[in-house]
Amino acid sequence: MNYDFDTPVNRFGTNSLKWEVKEHELPMWVADMDFQTAPEIREAMAQCLTHGVFGYSIVPDAWYEAIQRWWHTRHGFLMEKDWLIFCTGVIPALSSIVRKLTTVGENVVIQTPVYNIFFNSIVNNGRNVLESPLAYDGEQYSIDFADLEEKLSLPQTTMMILCNPHNPIGKIWDRETLARIGQLAARHHVLIVSDEIHCDLTDPGRDYIPFASVNEECKYNSITCIAPTKAFNLAGLQTAAVCVPNEVLRHKVDRGLNTDEVAEPNSFAIPAAIAAFTKGGGWLDALRQYLYENKLTVASYLEKELPDIKLVPSEATYLLWLDCGGICENASPLQKFLRRETGLYVSKGIQYGKCGQSFLRLNIACPRAVLMDGLNRLKTGIQQFRSKK
Questions:
Q1: What average pLDDT does the chain have?
Q2: Which secondary-structure segment (H or E) carries 86?
Q3: What are the pLDDT digits (tens) for 268-290?
Q4: CA atoms of 365 and 376, how far apart (whole Å)
Q5: In a domain, 49, yes or no
Q6: pLDDT band at 368; cut points 50, 70, 90
Q7: pLDDT band at 388, cuts 50/70/90?
Q8: Are 33 and 290 in contact (CB under 8 A)?
């Protein structure tokens, strides 16, 4: 079946967070896509709408079975039904887990640059953010294991939030790397919470490795947060899951999610998730190919038109990490200038950690014509920015 990703969808006036901008502006910042979701999902939701009754919902066996089958066939990891807990979102789950499984004043390790809301989930709950910056050699990122172990070994460190695949750098962590993280965490009695919300947005021919699938040590010392929301553009439906193989941890997580009242689905959350994981594979594979071609378009454009911007190699997600160090040491003024002068709205890198100061994050989940508009605005804006320095 052919799917149309080229036709723009007008999102102005739809109460979209992303598109709550001035009419001349082009938002390429927050991580949602400008594509309609899979027709199979829309059909499932239409059936709910036609029924017309929107009372309280349960979590049926079909939801568990859909997730189990998807992860087994797509990612080679067989989850048991009992491991899975419904949640309204990955971030609500992360915040609840931080509250339930750590104590005020303890350290939670994150690997920066990383998704900025991790900071909120930690700080807002009275815990300490402990950054273990990823090593950057000017081309790509890797883990500084010496620094990571130093941070994990501190007595007040009790949790680490892992981003797998990693946002914003688009990195897929390999099995050896994940096993080493798991070994260090277990050695120092640190619980791993793995955010795997971007796991289905890998480049064609590439797959991610679920942290809990690596070995028994990783499986029983981890909590994994998953959702169809990023891959199928369903963030507004508030549908996610938490996978907890360890029975003792699972009891605590379950109690935390229920206490925080984030464990009950709305009328569309379950049908949409089931449709995504049972009927959405073809659409997703077509999307992955389209996004990959968008990445190639950006790489080619930057090489020809903006060679001073380095594109960090990406294997997953639709978020590109742009190294602007060849233009300025601090990209925040550049980000503001681009929006003011050209209408291009991208994310400033420093919000993902201090080590992201010279970077911008670009969302390329849009029709190709829109992407080219964004790239041309980027070029124009940088030319003007340089002329005023």
A1: 98
A2: strand 84-87
A3: 999 999 999 999 999 999 999 99
A4: 16
A5: yes
A6: very high
A7: confident
A8: no
List Cα–Cα distances, 46 to 18, 52, 86, 278, 279, in angstroms. Answer: 24, 10, 22, 17, 15
Tell me the residue range of the domain where 221 lies: 42-279
Side-chain-side CA neighbours of residue 149 (13 Å): 6
**Tokens (6 digits) for 356:** 């992201």
Asked whether residue 356 falls in the same domain as residue 300, the answer is yes
Could you tell me if 291 and 235 lie in one domain? no
- Could you tell me the CA-to-CA distances from 294 to 67, 166, 343, 371 in Å, in that order? 29, 19, 21, 8
Tell me, rounded to whole angstroms, the distance of Cα 236 from its chain centroid.
15
Three-state DSSP class for residue 347: strand
Q: How many CB atoms lie within 10 A of CB 284?
A: 19
324 and 253 both lie in a single domain = no
Look at strands 310-311 and 84-87 and give their pairing.
unpaired
Say how far residue 284 (Cα) sits from the centre of its chain.
16
CATH label of the domain that carries residue 354? 3.90.1150.10
